[in-house]
Amino acid sequence: MSEERHGVRHGVRSSGGPRKSQEIFDATLELLAEKGYEGLTVEGVAQRSGVNKTTIYRWWPSKGALLGAALTGARQLDLQPPDTGSLQGDLEALLHAVVALLTAPPSSGIAVSALGAATHSPELAVHVREFFADRLARELPVFDRAIARGELEADADPMLLVDLLAGAAWLRVVLRQLPIEKDFVSRAVSTVLHGAGAAG
Amino acid sequence: MSEERHGVRHGVRSSGGPRKSQEIFDATLELLAEKGYEGLTVEGVAQRSGVNKTTIYRWWPSKGALLGAALTGARQLDLQPPDTGSLQGDLEALLHAVVALLTAPPSSGIAVSALGAATHSPELAVHVREFFADRLARELPVFDRAIARGELEADADPMLLVDLLAGAAWLRVVLRQLPIEKDFVSRAVSTVLHGAGAAG
Question: Which listed residue, A124, B8, B67, B176, has the most CB atoms within 10 A of its CB?
Fold first, then answer.
């Protein structure tokens, strides 16, 4: 992966962006949800966020770079890895967060727009890939703690477990376009941890 | 060329479409993959399939209706439900089919384009929803047989199991954009049937 990391220049704040980064990210994601990737412009982001266009370009040389930074840096899409004391609890919290991301505005529009746009734009696809890699990295402590507690074998595959759970939510919400039942999260996590096969 | 085929409009088949339905569906899905939903036109389908535009309109009054029919009727996306004799075998066959759909051309382009377009077009979204409902209906015998064999409890939730497995493939291929490892299918199915939790 040869992705350039933003905020590696001199004079960068610790958070790696101009002072109004969050306003810029919010405007970027809102415009993506409203207009799609084709309709997203740095000009539009400047207008909505009230930040000068040249300032935005100084930090992010293209709208693709800006959107990549917004996907991993925006508060709206932030993920706080849970620590409930059990793997079942942590995975339920993670899956609830995915369901909320996909169903609660404004992030629902953002997630679905980003996905739709990524399928048509190789540039955006790179940033969607980074977004998911970033999230997995933040989720790993959940699995490390579960292994330490003896709830998971040491050779468990966190990415597979996340993909089963989060993938089910994406499929149910975005593709099937069905509501998430009340017990969807607990049943999905139980199935992945304990299996659906008959005990006998 | 389409003018020469004008007589096709009289060649109605009992299955509810003109004689050259498969050519029309193929052209529809190819154009969707190449141009996206916005670029898909009944005119373009007529040109590529060699079927008169009025014939197509007679059967499908809009491009949305045509695409809906193509998604569930095209050979390229056809699903033959497996019957391997075991639930593990059947689910592996189903998941292999999903992985092939998502990774092997031409269906991979179709699936990803349809998904991307569905997120922007309420009309297409209806047909994507129908596509997934149709597939689940075809998959149900796998679960009925597993319950009859005692491999699944009678109150098992087929949709949840399908969404865990197929969702993982969608997430891995379309969103993470990572290759599917050789043992992805068998490990995903084992996890869903037997659980990832430590035995102890």
Answer: B67
B40 and B107 belong to one structural domain: no
Residue range B104-122, pLDDT digits in tens? 877 777 777 776 666 667 7
Q: Are residues A88 and A46 in the same domain?
A: no
Interface-testing mutation among B163, B184, B185, with chain A (most A C-beta atoms within 10 A)? B163
* Cβ atoms < 10 Å from Cβ of B10: 9
| Best A160, A161, A162, A165 residue to mutate vs chain B (most B CBs within 10 Å) | A160
Residue A184 located in a structural domain: yes
B143 part of contact set with chain A, CB < 8 Å: no
Is residue B26 assigned to a domain? yes
Q: Say what the ipTM of the complex is.
A: 0.85
Of A43, A68, A40, the C-alpha closest to A56 is A43
**Partners of residue A129 in chain B, C-beta under 8 Å:** 175-177
Q: Do B171 and B83 share a domain, yes or no?
A: yes
Do residues A33 and A111 lie in contact, with contact meaning Cβ atoms separated by under 8 Å?
Answer: no
Residue ending a domain, among A46, A73, A100, is A73
* Contact of B105 with B30, CB cutoff 8 Å: no
Q: Which of A132, A192, A198 sits opposite B196 (nearest CB)?
A: A192
Question: The whole model's pTM is what?
Answer: 0.85
A184 and A118 share one domain:
yes
Q: Who contacts B115 (Cβ-Cβ below 8 Å, separation ≥6)?
A: A115, A116, A119, A174, A175, B128, B174
Distance of CA B141 to CAs B72, B144, B146, Å? 18, 5, 8
Instruction: List the 45-74 stretch of A: residues with Cβ below 8 A of B.
Output: none
Contact residues, B window 75-94, toward A, CB-based 8 Å cutoff: 87
Is residue A199 classed as helix, strand or coil in its secondary structure? coil
Q: Does pLDDT of B4 surpass 50?
A: no
Minimal Cα–Cα distance from B75 to chain A, Å?
A: 21
Instruction: For residues A45-54, give the mean pLDDT.
Output: 96
